[in-house]
Protein backbone atom coordinates (compact mmCIF):
# COMPACT_ATOMS: atom_id res chain seq x y z
CA UNK A 1 0.00 0.00 0.00
CA UNK A 2 1.03 3.63 -0.25
CA UNK A 3 2.67 5.40 2.68
CA UNK A 4 4.38 8.71 3.31
CA UNK A 5 4.20 11.20 0.44
CA UNK A 6 2.23 8.64 -1.58
CA UNK A 7 5.27 6.36 -1.85
CA UNK A 8 4.91 2.61 -2.13
CA UNK A 9 6.20 0.24 0.53
CA UNK A 10 9.10 -0.66 -1.78
CA UNK A 11 10.11 2.97 -2.30
CA UNK A 12 9.99 3.68 1.44
CA UNK A 13 12.08 0.59 2.21
CA UNK A 14 14.62 1.48 -0.48
CA UNK A 15 15.06 4.92 1.06
CA UNK A 16 15.81 3.20 4.34
CA UNK A 17 18.14 0.66 2.68
CA UNK A 18 19.82 2.59 -0.17
CA UNK A 19 22.45 -0.10 -0.78
CA UNK A 20 19.97 -2.96 -1.08
CA UNK A 21 18.76 -4.16 -4.47
CA UNK A 22 15.04 -3.81 -5.32
CA UNK A 23 14.94 -7.60 -5.64
CA UNK A 24 16.16 -8.12 -2.07
CA UNK A 25 13.84 -5.43 -0.73
CA UNK A 26 10.66 -6.82 -2.32
CA UNK A 27 11.57 -10.30 -1.12
CA UNK A 28 11.98 -9.01 2.44
CA UNK A 29 8.69 -7.10 2.24
CA UNK A 30 6.94 -10.26 1.08
CA UNK A 31 8.58 -12.22 3.91
CA UNK A 32 7.28 -9.62 6.38
CA UNK A 33 3.78 -10.14 4.98
CA UNK A 34 4.11 -13.91 5.45
CA UNK A 35 5.12 -13.29 9.08
CA UNK A 36 2.21 -10.89 9.55
CA UNK A 37 -0.12 -13.63 8.33
CA UNK A 38 1.39 -15.96 10.96
CA UNK A 39 2.13 -18.62 8.35
CA UNK A 40 3.61 -21.66 10.10
CA UNK A 41 3.17 -24.43 7.53
CA UNK A 42 2.44 -24.87 3.83
CA UNK A 43 0.41 -24.28 1.82
CA UNK A 44 0.25 -20.53 2.37
CA UNK A 45 -3.24 -19.02 2.68
CA UNK A 46 -2.79 -16.39 -0.02
CA UNK A 47 -6.33 -15.08 0.33
CA UNK A 48 -5.55 -14.22 3.95
CA UNK A 49 -2.44 -12.32 2.84
CA UNK A 50 -4.55 -10.58 0.20
CA UNK A 51 -6.99 -9.41 2.87
CA UNK A 52 -4.11 -8.03 4.95
CA UNK A 53 -3.22 -5.88 1.93
CA UNK A 54 -6.81 -4.56 1.78
CA UNK A 55 -7.83 -6.69 -1.20
CA UNK A 56 -11.53 -7.13 -0.55
CA UNK A 57 -12.30 -9.87 -3.07
CA UNK A 58 -10.58 -12.58 -5.12
CA UNK A 59 -12.75 -13.93 -7.91
CA UNK A 60 -12.32 -16.28 -10.85
CA UNK A 61 -13.18 -15.31 -14.40
CA UNK A 62 -12.53 -16.62 -17.90
CA UNK A 63 -10.23 -14.37 -19.89
CA UNK A 64 -6.99 -14.32 -21.87
CA UNK A 65 -4.85 -13.04 -18.98
CA UNK A 66 -3.71 -14.97 -15.92
CA UNK A 67 -4.91 -12.35 -13.46
CA UNK A 68 -5.28 -8.68 -12.69
CA UNK A 69 -5.43 -6.27 -9.77
CA UNK A 70 -8.31 -3.80 -10.04
CA UNK A 71 -8.66 -0.61 -8.02
CA UNK A 72 -12.24 0.59 -8.37
CA UNK A 73 -13.55 3.40 -6.21
CA UNK A 74 -10.77 2.81 -3.71
CA UNK A 75 -11.47 -0.91 -3.32
CA UNK A 76 -8.98 -3.53 -4.47
CA UNK A 77 -10.06 -6.73 -6.20
CA UNK A 78 -8.14 -9.53 -7.88
CA UNK A 79 -9.40 -11.54 -10.82
CA UNK A 80 -7.87 -14.95 -11.59
CA UNK A 81 -8.25 -17.08 -14.70
CA UNK A 82 -10.63 -19.94 -13.85
CA UNK A 83 -9.13 -22.12 -16.60
CA UNK A 84 -5.69 -22.23 -15.01
CA UNK A 85 -4.47 -24.75 -12.44
CA UNK A 86 -4.47 -24.04 -8.71
CA UNK A 87 -0.64 -23.72 -8.57
CA UNK A 88 -0.72 -21.23 -11.44
CA UNK A 89 -3.56 -19.29 -9.78
CA UNK A 90 -1.64 -19.23 -6.49
CA UNK A 91 1.43 -17.69 -8.10
CA UNK A 92 -0.69 -15.17 -9.98
CA UNK A 93 -2.47 -14.18 -6.76
CA UNK A 94 0.90 -13.77 -5.05
CA UNK A 95 2.02 -11.62 -7.98
CA UNK A 96 -1.01 -9.35 -7.69
CA UNK A 97 -0.66 -9.08 -3.90
CA UNK A 98 2.92 -7.90 -4.40
CA UNK A 99 1.72 -5.15 -6.72
CA UNK A 100 0.25 -3.50 -3.61
CA UNK A 101 3.84 -3.12 -2.36
CA UNK A 102 5.13 -1.64 -5.62
CA UNK A 103 4.94 1.78 -7.29
CA UNK A 104 2.00 2.66 -9.50
CA UNK A 105 -0.52 -0.01 -8.57
CA UNK A 106 -3.20 2.57 -7.74
CA UNK A 107 -2.85 4.29 -11.11
CA UNK A 108 -4.01 1.53 -13.44
CA UNK A 109 -5.23 -2.06 -13.62
CA UNK A 110 -2.28 -4.48 -13.58
CA UNK A 111 -2.54 -7.53 -15.82
CA UNK A 112 -0.36 -10.61 -15.54
CA UNK A 113 0.01 -12.40 -18.86
CA UNK A 114 3.53 -13.85 -19.13
CA UNK A 115 4.82 -15.49 -15.94
CA UNK A 116 8.21 -16.78 -15.04
CA UNK A 117 10.81 -14.42 -16.50
CA UNK A 118 14.17 -15.29 -14.95
CA UNK A 119 15.76 -11.84 -15.21
CA UNK A 120 14.49 -8.26 -15.10
CA UNK A 121 14.27 -6.14 -18.22
CA UNK A 122 17.37 -4.05 -18.83
CA UNK A 123 16.17 -0.57 -17.90
CA UNK A 124 16.98 2.22 -15.51
CA UNK A 125 13.40 2.12 -14.29
CA UNK A 126 12.04 -0.44 -11.85
CA UNK A 127 10.67 -3.52 -13.60
CA UNK A 128 7.58 -3.88 -11.42
CA UNK A 129 6.32 -7.02 -13.18
CA UNK A 130 9.62 -8.77 -12.54
CA UNK A 131 9.64 -7.60 -8.92
CA UNK A 132 6.05 -8.80 -8.45
CA UNK A 133 7.19 -12.26 -9.60
CA UNK A 134 10.12 -12.18 -7.15
CA UNK A 135 7.76 -11.27 -4.32
CA UNK A 136 5.24 -13.92 -5.38
CA UNK A 137 7.93 -16.60 -5.08
CA UNK A 138 8.44 -15.55 -1.46
CA UNK A 139 4.71 -15.59 -0.71
CA UNK A 140 4.02 -18.99 -2.27
CA UNK A 141 7.31 -20.64 -1.21
CA UNK A 142 8.51 -18.73 1.90
CA UNK A 143 12.26 -19.15 2.34
CA UNK A 144 12.05 -19.66 6.12
CA UNK A 145 9.90 -22.74 5.47
CA UNK A 146 10.91 -24.09 2.08
CA UNK A 147 14.68 -23.95 2.66
CA UNK A 148 14.32 -26.73 5.22
CA UNK A 149 12.04 -28.74 2.95
CA UNK A 150 14.60 -28.57 0.14
CA UNK A 151 17.47 -29.49 2.50
CA UNK A 152 15.68 -32.53 3.93
CA UNK A 153 15.18 -34.13 0.53
CA UNK A 154 17.71 -35.60 -1.92
CA UNK A 155 18.49 -33.62 -5.05
CA UNK A 156 16.26 -34.23 -8.04
CA UNK A 157 12.75 -34.03 -9.42
CA UNK A 158 11.26 -36.44 -6.88
CA UNK A 159 12.07 -33.86 -4.21
CA UNK A 160 10.89 -30.93 -6.32
CA UNK A 161 7.60 -32.69 -7.05
CA UNK A 162 7.08 -33.34 -3.33
CA UNK A 163 7.76 -29.71 -2.40
CA UNK A 164 5.58 -28.52 -5.28
CA UNK A 165 2.64 -30.56 -3.98
CA UNK A 166 3.26 -29.50 -0.38
CA UNK A 167 3.13 -25.79 -1.23
CA UNK A 168 0.52 -26.00 -4.02
CA UNK A 169 3.10 -24.43 -6.33
CA UNK A 170 3.91 -25.24 -9.94
CA UNK A 171 6.91 -27.41 -10.75
CA UNK A 172 8.61 -24.56 -12.58
CA UNK A 173 8.05 -22.08 -9.74
CA UNK A 174 9.41 -24.64 -7.29
CA UNK A 175 12.48 -25.29 -9.43
CA UNK A 176 13.16 -21.56 -9.79
CA UNK A 177 12.86 -21.18 -6.02
CA UNK A 178 15.24 -24.09 -5.43
CA UNK A 179 17.83 -22.48 -7.69
CA UNK A 180 17.33 -19.06 -6.14
CA UNK A 181 17.92 -20.39 -2.62
CA UNK A 182 20.72 -22.81 -3.51
CA UNK A 183 23.98 -22.26 -1.63
CA UNK A 184 25.84 -23.83 -4.55
CA UNK A 185 26.00 -22.77 -8.21
CA UNK A 186 22.77 -24.09 -9.73
CA UNK A 187 20.55 -23.67 -12.78
CA UNK A 188 17.09 -24.57 -14.04
CA UNK A 189 15.98 -24.77 -17.67
CA UNK A 190 12.71 -25.46 -19.41
CA UNK A 191 13.32 -26.96 -22.85
CA UNK A 192 11.07 -27.58 -25.84
CA UNK A 193 11.63 -28.44 -29.47
CA UNK A 194 11.87 -25.46 -31.79
CA UNK A 195 13.63 -24.08 -34.83
CA UNK A 196 15.88 -21.06 -35.28
CA UNK A 197 16.52 -18.58 -38.08
CA UNK A 198 19.66 -20.47 -39.08
CA UNK A 199 18.43 -24.03 -38.47
CA UNK A 200 14.99 -25.15 -39.69
CA UNK A 201 15.43 -28.54 -38.03
CA UNK A 202 13.65 -28.73 -34.65
CA UNK A 203 16.13 -28.94 -31.79
CA UNK A 204 15.70 -29.09 -28.02
CA UNK A 205 15.95 -25.42 -27.06
CA UNK A 206 15.81 -23.28 -23.93
CA UNK A 207 12.42 -21.63 -23.41
CA UNK A 208 13.17 -20.40 -19.90
CA UNK A 209 16.25 -20.38 -17.69
CA UNK A 210 17.09 -19.42 -14.11
CA UNK A 211 20.37 -19.59 -12.25
CA UNK A 212 21.63 -18.93 -8.74
CA UNK A 213 23.56 -15.88 -7.67
CA UNK A 214 26.58 -18.12 -7.27
CA UNK A 215 26.61 -18.91 -10.99
CA UNK A 216 27.85 -15.95 -13.00
CA UNK A 217 26.47 -16.92 -16.40
CA UNK A 218 23.78 -16.06 -18.92
CA UNK A 219 21.80 -18.87 -20.56
CA UNK A 220 20.32 -17.35 -23.72
CA UNK A 221 16.80 -18.15 -24.89
CA UNK A 222 16.62 -20.69 -27.74
CA UNK A 223 20.06 -22.08 -26.86
CA UNK A 224 20.02 -25.69 -28.07
CA UNK A 225 21.07 -28.83 -26.23
CA UNK A 226 22.98 -31.32 -28.43
CA UNK A 227 21.27 -34.61 -29.18
CA UNK A 228 24.30 -36.37 -27.69
CA UNK A 229 23.92 -34.63 -24.31
CA UNK A 230 22.44 -36.60 -21.36
CA UNK A 231 19.60 -34.07 -20.96
CA UNK A 232 18.35 -34.92 -24.46
CA UNK A 233 17.60 -38.49 -23.35
CA UNK A 234 14.72 -37.09 -21.30
CA UNK A 235 12.89 -36.47 -24.60
CA UNK A 236 12.82 -40.26 -25.00
CA UNK A 237 11.19 -40.74 -21.60
CA UNK A 238 14.34 -41.37 -19.57
CA UNK A 239 14.66 -40.00 -16.03
CA UNK A 240 18.15 -38.53 -16.24
CA UNK A 241 20.23 -38.18 -13.08
CA UNK A 242 23.97 -37.98 -13.64
CA UNK A 243 27.00 -35.71 -13.67
CA UNK A 244 27.43 -33.90 -16.98
CA UNK A 245 29.40 -31.09 -18.56
CA UNK A 246 27.11 -28.10 -19.14
CA UNK A 247 29.24 -26.05 -21.52
CA UNK A 248 26.38 -26.28 -24.03
CA UNK A 249 24.41 -23.93 -21.75
CA UNK A 250 27.47 -21.79 -21.00
CA UNK A 251 27.70 -23.17 -17.46
CA UNK A 252 31.35 -24.00 -16.73
CA UNK A 253 32.34 -27.23 -15.01
CA UNK A 254 30.60 -30.44 -14.04
CA UNK A 255 27.02 -30.41 -12.75
CA UNK A 256 24.85 -33.07 -11.24
CA UNK A 257 21.86 -32.90 -13.54
CA UNK A 258 18.31 -34.14 -13.05
CA UNK A 259 16.10 -33.97 -16.16
CA UNK A 260 12.63 -35.33 -16.85
CA UNK A 261 9.94 -35.08 -19.52
CA UNK A 262 6.85 -33.17 -18.39
CA UNK A 263 4.53 -32.97 -21.41
CA UNK A 264 1.51 -30.70 -21.26
CA UNK A 265 -1.48 -29.71 -23.36
CA UNK A 266 -1.32 -26.25 -24.95
CA UNK A 267 -4.85 -24.84 -24.74
CA UNK A 268 -4.15 -22.09 -27.27
CA UNK A 269 -2.63 -24.38 -29.91
CA UNK A 270 -4.84 -27.35 -29.05
CA UNK A 271 -1.98 -29.83 -29.02
CA UNK A 272 0.30 -31.80 -26.72
CA UNK A 273 3.75 -30.28 -26.16
CA UNK A 274 6.85 -32.19 -25.08
CA UNK A 275 8.53 -30.23 -22.31
CA UNK A 276 11.78 -31.19 -20.59
CA UNK A 277 12.63 -29.67 -17.21
CA UNK A 278 16.20 -29.86 -15.96
CA UNK A 279 17.97 -28.69 -12.82
CA UNK A 280 21.68 -28.83 -12.14
CA UNK A 281 23.93 -28.25 -9.15
CA UNK A 282 27.66 -27.75 -9.48
CA UNK A 283 29.53 -30.99 -8.86
CA UNK A 284 33.17 -30.62 -7.72
CA UNK A 285 35.86 -32.42 -9.67
CA UNK A 286 37.78 -35.27 -8.10
CA UNK A 287 40.62 -32.95 -7.11
CA UNK A 288 38.17 -30.63 -5.36
CA UNK A 289 36.44 -33.35 -3.37
CA UNK A 290 37.36 -33.75 0.24
CA UNK A 291 38.87 -37.06 1.30
Automatic annotation (TrEMBL):
One of the Pfam families matching this protein, by short name: Peptidase_M78
Stretches assigned to coiled coil: none
Transmembrane segments: none
Entry superkingdom: Bacteria
Span of domain IrrE N-terminal-like: 76-177
InterPro entries assigned: IrrE_HExxH (IPR010359), Rad_response_metalloprotease (IPR052345)
Protein name: ImmA/IrrE family metallo-endopeptidase
Amino acid sequence: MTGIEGLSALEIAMRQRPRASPEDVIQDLAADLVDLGEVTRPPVDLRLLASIQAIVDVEETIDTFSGCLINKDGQLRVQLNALESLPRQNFTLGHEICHTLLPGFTLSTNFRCTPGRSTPRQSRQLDVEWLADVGASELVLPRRLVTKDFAERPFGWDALEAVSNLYAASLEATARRFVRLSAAPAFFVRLQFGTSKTNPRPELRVRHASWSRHLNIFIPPKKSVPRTHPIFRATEGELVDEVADMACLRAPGQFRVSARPYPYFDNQKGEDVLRVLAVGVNSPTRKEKRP
